[in-house]
Amino acid sequence: MNVIEFLIRLDDDAIVHAIREAELRTSGEIRVYVAKEKAPDPMQAAIEQFHRMGMTQTRDRNGVLIFIAPKSQTFAIVGDEGIHQKCGPDFWNALVDEMRGHFRENPTHAIVHAITRAGEHLAQHFPRRADDQNELPDAVERE
After folding, report:
1. pLDDT in tens, the chain (143 residues)
2. Which domains does the chain have, with CATH numbers?
3. What's the predicted TM-score (pTM) here?
4. Contact (CB, 8 A) for 34 and 143
5. Is the Cα torsion angle 114, 116, 120, 122 positive or negative in sign?
6. CA 23 remoteness from chain centre
7. Which of 8, 61, 72, 76 makes a 20 to 30 Å CA pair with 125?
């Protein structure tokens, strides 16, 4: 699938809905970023974008970024130190493998699946609090 087709098939409304549903159960924050340029090293690009988006500023350091670079057909998932300490690399690696399996057929489904799974994991370790606020925007961010 080419970049234009990928972007056309991406359903931002479904992704935002999944983020909002996931965040109803957790104090964690989930963001999705779609890069304009290639990202041959998607993990490094995702970490840099994570910082640019201010995702280290959450109260419990429990933000998750799903970074997608359609031009290079790469993606990565980054969790801040709070959530990473709770789940370790095995969870993230398994989630990346699950996403990879869904991407070709339906990119939106792949992203929604990752959001749902990340939300479940966040809810286990960082349940929603009575004073919880949405600390970061839910919209899909694009370059």
Report:
1. 688 888 888 999 999 999 999 999 999 999 999 999 999 999 999 999 999 999 999 999 999 999 999 999 999 999 999 998 888 888 999 999 999 988 878 999 999 999 999 999 999 999 999 999 999 999 999 98
2. 3-142 (3.10.310.50)
3. 0.95
4. yes
5. positive
6. 12
7. 76
Q: Supply 36's token pair.
A: 């304009």
Q: What length does the chain have?
A: 143
Token look-up 């959001």 returns 115
Both tokens assigned to 134: 């949405």
